[in-house]
Amino acid sequence: MPFTTQRKVRFQHCDPAGIVFYPRYYEMLNSVVEDYFAEVVGHDFNRLHVTSRTGVPTARIETDFHAPSRLGETLDFELTIRDVGRTSLAIRTAVHCGGEPRLTCDATLVFVDLDSGRPLPWPEAMRCHFAIES
Amino acid sequence: MPFTTQRKVRFQHCDPAGIVFYPRYYEMLNSVVEDYFAEVVGHDFNRLHVTSRTGVPTARIETDFHAPSRLGETLDFELTIRDVGRTSLAIRTAVHCGGEPRLTCDATLVFVDLDSGRPLPWPEAMRCHFAIES
Amino acid sequence: MPFTTQRKVRFQHCDPAGIVFYPRYYEMLNSVVEDYFAEVVGHDFNRLHVTSRTGVPTARIETDFHAPSRLGETLDFELTIRDVGRTSLAIRTAVHCGGEPRLTCDATLVFVDLDSGRPLPWPEAMRCHFAIES
Amino acid sequence: MPFTTQRKVRFQHCDPAGIVFYPRYYEMLNSVVEDYFAEVVGHDFNRLHVTSRTGVPTARIETDFHAPSRLGETLDFELTIRDVGRTSLAIRTAVHCGGEPRLTCDATLVFVDLDSGRPLPWPEAMRCHFAIES
């Protein structure tokens, strides 16, 4: 089952053309990954970054923007796991508004040690939560 | 010849891991496109958006992050035109620091009428500045 | 009764020192004003800005930061109306975390016509919702 | 002599009303403080935060917004030191565009140990650069 959540398009997300400025989508997308790790994987970003000194930087990201989003709209985010590597995770996030596709984003995250910058194998306690949707 | 410019990694770009938070790269990348339009194409974003009620939203974007960037570093941006369509523009921006690759971003922009949201053919006055690098 | 809402401290809000970068508080504070206008005053920011071509820019703002906020914390926002002028509104927003004060912000908003930039008297339909707390 | 620098109003700073969204001014103001510390005080923010594990969080800030700024404008920032305390620094930043006042911001920064969160006395090497303008 995909992980779903919502975000409201706020004034701070919109540009002089009155639509979401695309870098702001990445703040929303990152916050959805944050929620996924906290609610599904059971590791919030504070524990991940501050306590464990690990991180999940984005190695690759690819986004298709299908239609603009406007101030006040509520966006539906649906995150699915596409692939789990030894140290990486491929996720797809599809964003809709009232059923209309707005953007689709494929990202590859890597689990790293913040101090060395080196990739780490996913701990079993995290890996067991990465359920691949087909 | 590619369009080149620099950006400094500032406090506002960095996350708790001490490296650039990737959505901030897109603010930098967008500002480089802004400079390219103002300095090379001869249409600044104010004229484009406010006076002409046109825009250049991003339809597709694909980024590889090669290595993290840190507070205080100066990044070199190199923008090249990859393809010019009737209403679109494919650009590549390579970002380095001291010769080390940090990220490569391929984006497709579309020229649109802000009021209708419809794609517009590039005006000849703009098109003649899009020199394709091979 | 004050207007209350919550915001979670997310990765995007935090700086290399691991605490909220203060400009991000203003994005949160602005989003709380947005919610207040939508939920209490009955005018969402889309209707205000796009439909009516009016706005509520900030003329003055004064903030005391009492203690830093950290990744993953949930902040309680409490907005009270301090004074209602013919064209202005003085609001105070107090932010706490688990009862501990984090910041107090006094702001003066002005109701303006976006096209002329001129202040406008508050419409009676909005004014009647501005209940002053004492 | 005040410390002066410039910032261009970019697309990323502007809101659906076509003017600078006020939280973005604080990113600019912070970057001016960053330049002041690097160029005048001789301590860049990387050295300050990462190497020395110190920081200069804002304890109090007070801003008057005199007139809106628009996409494409170049803003002149003028930073003056108003007062130097044992552990604090009171600065004023006046922002103009073509001589027209846009905003005036008074801020109090505190020098802190990032690990304990405790205020620290300014090192003499830094303090000697804080020249008070009268």
UniProtKB/TrEMBL annotation, chains A, B, C, D:
Gene3D superfamilies: Hotdog Thioesterase
InterPro entries, per the entry: 4-hydroxybenzoyl-CoA_TE (IPR050563), HotDog_dom_sf (IPR029069)
Superkingdom of origin organism: Bacteria
Protein name from the UniProt record: Acyl-CoA thioesterase
Organism of this sequence: Billgrantia antri
